[in-house]
Automatic annotation (TrEMBL), chain A:
This is 2-oxoisovalerate dehydrogenase subunit alpha. It catalyses: N(6)-[(R)-lipoyl]-L-lysyl-[protein] + 3-methyl-2-oxobutanoate + H(+) = N(6)-[(R)-S(8)-2-methylpropanoyldihydrolipoyl]-L-lysyl-[protein] + CO2. GO terms for molecular function: branched-chain 2-oxo acid dehydrogenase activity. Keywords: Oxidoreductase, Thiamine pyrophosphate. The keyword Protease does not apply.
Automatic annotation (TrEMBL), chain B:
Its EC number is 1.2.4.4. The lineage of its organism: Bacteria, Bacillati, Bacillota, Bacilli, Lactobacillales. Its cofactor is thiamine diphosphate. It is an enzyme of class 1 (oxidoreductase). Transmembrane segments: none annotated. The keyword Oxidoreductase applies. One of its GO terms (molecular function) is branched-chain 2-oxo acid dehydrogenase activity. This is 2-oxoisovalerate dehydrogenase subunit beta. Coiled coil: none annotated. It holds the Pfam family Transketolase_C. PANTHER family: PYRUVATE DEHYDROGENASE E1 COMPONENT BETA SUBUNIT, PYRUVATE DEHYDROGENASE E1 COMPONENT SUBUNIT BETA.
Amino acid sequence: MEKLKTTGLSKEELVQAYKDILMGRRLDERLWQLTRIGKTSFNISGQGAEVAQVAMAMAFEPEKDYFLPYYRDMTATLTWGMTPKDIIMGSFGKDADPSSHGRQMPNHYGSKEHNIVSHSSTVSTQIPLATGIAYGAILEKSDFVTLTTTGEGSSNQGEVHEAMNFAGVKNLPVIFGIENNEYAISVGTKEQYAAKKLSDRAIGYGFDGFTVDGNDFAATYLAFKKAVKKARDKKGPTLIEMMVSRLTSHSADDDHTIYRSKEELDSLKEKDPLLAFEKQLIDEGYMTKEEMLELDKDIKAQVNKATDDAEDMPDPTPESLYEQVYAE
Amino acid sequence: MVQMTYLEAINKGIEEEMTRDKKVVIFGEDVGGVKGGVFGATQGLAAKFGDERCFNTPLTEGEIAGIANGLGLIGYRAIGEFQFADYMLPAVNQILSETAKMRYRTKGDWTTPIVFRAPYGGGVRGGFYHSQSTEKVFFGQPGLRIVTPSNPYDAKGMIKAAIRSDDPVIFYEHKRLYRLLKADVPEEDYVVSIDKAQVVREGSDITVIGYGMVLQHALKAAEELAKDGIDAEVVDVRSIYPLDKETLVEAAKKTGKVLLITEDNKEGSIMSEIAAIISEEALFDLDAPIQRLAGPDVPSMGYALSLEREFLVNEEQVLEAMRELAEY
Ligand SMILES: Cc1ncc(C[n+]2csc(CCOP(=O)(O)OP(=O)(O)O)c2C)c(N)n1
């Protein structure tokens, strides 16, 4: 069964996907390390969602499409064009951090250069913005597509409903991604929503919704590919729910051993999409174990260099606290 | 010059800006089509500029703000109309979490140069939810500008300046003033500063500071008092946030006697801040305690005429308060 072949992606593209996924994992491990040794104060990670994020992002054209991510989307932003150094500068709060120049907490990704829009910590406020940008495609008679993501708990916010409703009414070229890792900090899905699938909500807004296994690279990529084509062809929005795992605690300030059982925690390794993707690449003949080990070495070296480079960058000056409150 | 109401001046100002710059778009509830808003402020715009640039939204204020934010991010000059200032409350999250902070949190990489129009104020038998002054909700949010014109000339010049501003502006329009005043308004292009208070009547005995409808009372009372040889200086705040401290403090120092009038509740209104600023900057130039004339501290005005009248600051009260202060 050659599942990856069905994506239509070349070997080079699939190897690149693996590089991004592995980089996402190694970079995130570094960010945890930095909090542990007290060099940074916070981390919130996408470990367990890397495969889904890369598969999602690869379906877009970052040079012209817009991305309004949420805080777990680091790996997706790498595929979209941000660099490991960009990410680490955000964690250190450096002046050159493209996400917010040290003004927001880590993991609030953004980059003007890459059409990645800054987001707040108030969950889901980016979703209405995505529909505004998508309406811009109609005004401009352009075929750019807007992607925005959030978590399953955050998808219950009223603004998500308002935005999806408008997207349906105006048939906007926008794709809503929900990364369902079945936890909103400690609160499970049963206490968040009564629907069978969150993607069924799309029916109520008048457009298509799909739930995909986010650990399945090919299925996720194909779902987004189809949705992107549909949006570019002016055929309207799509809601895609990706079922993913949360391998870590919610954030550096959380301890998931308090609310997840030992059995569940022990089973997380089996749910690791990185391992599954590696196996798939080997089984389907795209890479060998040796090549992967070689690549891992290279990626670790890149992470080390990015860390040093980012740490050497200047902090924001205290005076800059007063800058850019209003247009200058 | 041509005679125009405050409402016509706003309509004309928007029309001129939409003609000048095709990036100006306007939307809200009942704003598009033939209706042109429940007050008619956008009448004729859809016919002239098409129903993509002047459009109806669903009944969703959070989304109106979100669409504006999104369009602003990609270079549009979006004008979102809230049907009544009372109904901006569902949009507070968007406006405070996104609009007010976008420039600052990205150090200017992303900005939202948008205008939110908000008809406010009582005296229209609107009861609780069609009469409120909600500007204090947004006051003291660096990054936002809040303005309100008090006459047709300013209405046209300020809406044009607001649309051209690179900062997000909440443009409060007093509903009672919409058709009450007719005045000469130039047909040619002009703008009125949106960060300056204006001395609308020079005087040497007392200083009266207000905005919106109460200013009309103050101007009438000043003419009345002039007959008795009392010379009142009347200042239109216009720029509610940030406040033009210099003009306000100068005017307070000039006469040493200050009366602050607002249609809002007395406690926690904008006037409380103006009183604090004047005390801080000009206490030893004052010859009398700062006086405030305001609505009572009850939730809002009632629908019954008797209740509405009891709530609203009226002409007699203004005249009385000004006379008392002059005699202090
Ligand atoms: C409006 C709002 N309420 C509460 C929070 C605090 N908070 C941050 S993340 C989070 C859980 C979000 O869970 P989910 O949407 O499922 O995403 P996940 O973290 O699982 O990816 C909460 C409650 C917040 N940031 N914003």
